[in-house]
Each structure stands twice: as C-alpha cells, then as structure tokens.
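Predict structure. Input: Putative PurR-regulated permease PerM, 786 residues.
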Amino acid sequence: MAVLYFGREVFVPLALAALLSFLLVPASALLERLGIRRAPAALIVVFVSLAAIAALGWVMLGQVYNLAVELPQYQQNITQKIDSLHLHSAGRLSNTLAMLSEESRQLRGGVAPATAPALPDAPRPHIRSRSRAVSDPSKDQLSVQNDQPVTVRVELPEESFINLANRTVTPLIHPLTTTFAVVVFLAFMLVGREDLRDRGIRLAGRGRMHVTTSAIEDAGRRVGRYLRMQLIVNVVFGTVAGLSLWLIGVPNPLLWALLICVLRFIPYIGIFLAAAGPLLLSLAVSPHWNVLLWTAIMFLMLELIAGNIVEPLLYSSSTGLSPIAVLIAAIFWTLLWGLPGLLLSTPLTVCLVVIGRQVPQLQYLDVLFGDETALPPSERFYQRLLSSNTHEARALLQGLLATQPRDQVYDSVVIPALTLIEESRHAEEMTSTRAEEVLQSVEELTEDITSHSSLSEPPTSNTPKLIVCVPARDLADEIACQLAAHILSPASIVRVISADTATSDVLQTLDSLHPDAICVVGVPPQSLRHIRLRCNQVRAHLPQAAIFACLLSEECDLSNIRSRVSTEDAQHVVCSLHLMEEYLSSLLYPATQPDEHAQKSDDVVEDKQNLSEPLFEMQGGNIVDESEEGAFQRLATNLARSYDAPIALVTAAHNERRFWEAKCGLPDDALSFADTMHDPSVLTRLVSTESILVIPDTAEDPRSADEPFFRQFGIRFYAGMPLKSHDGTVIGSLCVLDTRPRQISEKQKEMLVWITEVVTTAIELQKATPSPEPTVETASDSFRQI
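Output follows.
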C-alpha cells in the first residue's frame, strides 16, 4: 500500500491509460481490420480522442463564458428570494424567545420582576457660561478644508515576468504532465498490447498460461463492457437532462449536459457535482421557486430510473462486484489516490476480483468483493437449520419456490441439506440427537409449505398409479421419500413406508399393495449399499416388480449408480427427484408424457464444455497410452451425464483393435455378451447404414425389439452414431442408452455428431501415424480445424 501511495505520480497515469485502452482497443482493432497498420491506427485513435476532448473543452469554455456574462443580471432574483425567506425576522424572534424565557424563570422563582419607582422629573439646573465663544476665521477655514475628500492612489511595483509565469504556469504543470504521461502510456499500450499480454503471461509463469490468459480475457471483457455501457448511459442521461433543462428554462443546457456526461463517471458523488450547477442557476434565473423545483424533480427521476432500472439491466452483472465492494473500493482508492482513485476504483477492483477467481491463493478477493452469494442456497438453508432459525429457512424456500419448480428446489436445496446433515452425523461432528432434531425441522418445513401450496390436479385421462417409496435406511431417507411423494402425488397415489418398519413388514406391505412401481430412496454418503441391499430384498420377494434405485444427490451420476446396482435388482436408476418424475411418467403414463428432452436445448453448450477435456486430451499424445484410454473412459462418463442417461459406450466393430473401447453404466461382461450375439456387434450394426440413429423405444421398434442385449439389460432407448473412417468403413459406434423410452433434442443430436467426428479423427490419426511425435502435431491441427 505504501508503494501505491508514494508511487501515485506514476501509477495514476498508468492506470488511467490502461482504463482508456480498454475503451479504445475496439476502435484501433477496427482500423487494423480496414488495412491500416497497428502503429498508425493507434496514433489515429489517440489523436481523434484528443481532438474530441479538445472540442468538448472548447464548447464548455464558451458556455462558461456566456454564463459568466449573463450571471450579474440574476442578482435581483437572488435578492428577492432571500427577502422572501424573511431571514431578518429571525433576530426579533430570538429576542422574543429570550424575553419569555427570562419571565418564565422569574415566575418559577416567585420573585416579581424588579422595576424602578416612578419619580417626578427633577428640574434641570441652568448653567450659564462665564466665557463667550470667540470666533476664529482661520480655524473655520481649516475645518472646511478638512471636510473635503482626499484622493489616495496606491501604486504597486511592476510585476516581473518570472513572477507572472510562476503565478500562471506553475498550477498547470502537474495536470499537463499527468495528461502527457497518460497520452504516452495510452499510445504504447495500444501499439504493444499483445506484447504486454505476453509479458504478463511470462511473468505469471508458463505453467499457468491457461489461468493467466483466462484472467486477462475476463478482466478485459468485464472492464471494457463496463466502460462502454457507462459511456452510453452517461450520454443518454446527459442528453435527456440537457433537453429537460432547456424545456424548464435553465440557461446553457449544453454546458450542463456535457458536465453530466463527464461527471457521472465518478461513482457516488458525480451526480451531485453535476446537479449542483443547474440547481444553483435555477435558483437565480427566476424570481419564483418553480424552476428550482422542476430541476430537482428532473434530476431525481432520471437518477432513480438510471440507477435502479437502466444500469442494472446493462452492466450490473458485467463487473461482477457486490454493491458493498463498490463502496469499499471507492473509499479505499480515494484515500489512496484522491479523485483519480475514485474514478479508477471500480475497474481496479474488477481486476482484483478476476484474479481472485483464477488464482486459488487469492480466492478470498472473489469471496469478499464478488457479486456471487457467499453461500449457495443449499448451504444457507442448512445453516439456518443449524441455528434453529426456521423463519428464515421457510422464507428461503418460499422465495425459491416462487420462481423455480418444486422438483428443482428440492433437488438443489433440500436434498443437499439432507446430505450435509448425514455427512456431519457420520463424521461425528453432530450427535445423533441433534441430527434428528434438524431432520425433523426439515420435515416440518416441507410439510408446512406443501400444505399451504396449491398442487395441480392429476390428469383425468389416466387412472392414477400406485407408487410406494421405501427408505433405504434412516430418517433422512424417509424425508427424501416424503419429498418424492410431494413431487409425484399430483399424478399418482404415493405411499411412504416409515424408516422404522422392519424388513419383513416392508415386504408384507408391498405384497399386499401390489404397487405399479417401487422406489427405494436414499441420500448420500452411505446409502448406496443400503439401496442395493433393499432392492435385492424386494426383488427376491417380488420378482416381477418395477423397482427404481433412487440415490438422490446434487452430483447426479447415473452411470455410477447403474454400474453398482445391477439390472437384476433394479431395472431403473435415478439420481434426482426430477429424473424420478420423468422416468415414472414415461413408464407409467407414456401417452401423456411431454417431450421434455426435445425442449431442453440451452444446456448443450455446457455439455460440450464438460466433454471438451477428455476430447482434447486425446490430441495431446499417443492414443494407445493408458492415459488416453482413461480419456475415452471419461468421455463415456461425461457423455452419459450430459444426456441424463445411465449408460454410454464407445465400442468397436468386429476385428478392430479394442484398446480404445470405453463404457459406463454396464458390468464388465456386457460388451462380450453383445459381441456373442451378432457379428459384428449389435451396437455397431444398428448404425452401420445411418448417419445417426435414435430409437425412442427399443421394445416397439422392429430393428431392436428382438435384440437379446437390450432385453438382458433393460434398454428401452438407443441413440448411436457410427465411427466411420475416411473411406466410409464403420469401425465402431458411439452410443447413449437408457432404461426408459425418451427423446433427445436436435441440438443434442448435433453434439453427438460433433463428438463422433472428434473421436474418429483421433483414432485414424493414431492408426496412420507410426511415431508419437507427429501424432501430437497432426492431431492438434485436426482438432483446431474441427
């Protein structure tokens, strides 16, 4: 901090130049695209900017001169307004109050005011002078001369040239040198911006190139957008204010419009500085008060609209700063650098927050000053429960339910809170008694909110199905079953079995109810093995039952659950209440199930980001390395997660090498089972003649209805894309499988095609390249082209 303070003569121009460079880089880049070289383009942008500033300054000086000429004629209006306030009556009022106070004090003391007795006027003595006044003519003439005014002239010595220069030029040296330094820094930054970026990356370390590049791009994008949006807002604000002042009758509206545009860049006090001039002038231009009143109302309305509607919509999220961070930054940088620090406070703090987001050691900067909430809703809800603040916990849930679907709120807030309670209990950070109290609070809150909310009626075209929810083990699992009942009850009849019920009683109840579906529900961290055990018990007692293994978790990983719970124990696996509702609706009410997956297309970009890491890992080395096989495995896992599917496969055709196979959600012997059924494998044969093949229901489609592989593992949905070589030979397939009938959107189909092209390119490069070194370069070029 001491370095920043004592070095402010250098740091302030440097920071101002950097701030202006964010604003002028797009203009310089535009000139470069038009064919002008970088150095001339940068100089043209700087020269035009200086010319524009000089023109605005000249216009403002002219307006100030006109205002100075017209100002004396408003003296009478100011005098009338002062007289209308009756300020001279304040003296008489204070004297009256003092007299009344004295009288009251004397009356409380019981003493009458002392008054002097009236006495008759005494006769005045008559004194006669014994001497007579003698008239002196010389003295009379001297007194007459003394009564005449005497002219006095003060002559100052002639001011030297050095003193004149010192008095006029010295105050201008500091701002002129600062301006010159800003212009020089700005020109060099525009010309060498790429070199400066490379030096910053080198300074941060080559091993952190990705982090440094992301930080530079993020900071430049946020600061540039903030400055451009604020410039637009200030210009519009100044234009509207100038027109309003002209209509009201305030002189020199152009001057005030320009000042408003410039001064609003200063946080907090800028608008007050801009409004002070028009308000004071409106006080003088008219003998009445209406001009001042309309001017104040105009500024108040414009600032309310700009500060609460326009600015939040345009750039509130672009800075990434919380309101308290903006205030703290303004105070800190103002104390450090004065008025320039106040002007630079927001951009400098934005850069610090971006660094905090990219560098783990400085993450506290993002936590302190960032606009993201310090705790996610699930942890906030959990903290309110721990502090026994059920009022705020209820308000939090009700606020989320007002804007989000019920299943989404339960999946993102309540289920993670249950998981946190279970983790604390298993880690012995919370006693069992305390955990039970918190769980009961969750149960009461959700029941209370559900009882006061209106639920939609079940569809009249279907007979409601009976669904039984069985907790895997304890009270947390039972509460999860109750949450599932809240989601499923509008369309189905849901029964929840208590967690205290013995296993024999559970099986007897299921046998007597004959449910259409049985959901074994649990929450992490130790419920998966209990879910598997409970599913096995139910399957042994009811071999034909439709069983769903439901491990409700915020980190939804269907393939992991599917690989650990066999299809013999549970035909279907789900990891959220939303998926549970979708699975049950598609299986129990297939005729009324909406095509939700066809509507979900906005998340495809995020899914591509999840798949990018394993895909680009393939381009970095030999495809037969163990790490590359791991990349294919992660690709299959992320592919299943992106499509909300339990199974995904990267499989090879017959007689192809199988080192690059990958699977998730199936046991180890699943692929060998598929290969023994047909030659080549069924998964490759289905797509051998198609560019992309989607079978919404494999049980109804003649191409897949008789496939033993699908029947063995309960596959009801298939989406596949062939892996074709450059000559059209099918060398394998990329498949997404599900245990329920469903659809995928067009964008999800496009993403499957994109992934297949990348995988095929990586495989062919490995087969065609004899050594690892050319493989890396060639694969990198091909991936960049894709």
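The CA atoms of residues 125 and 131 lie 18 Å apart.
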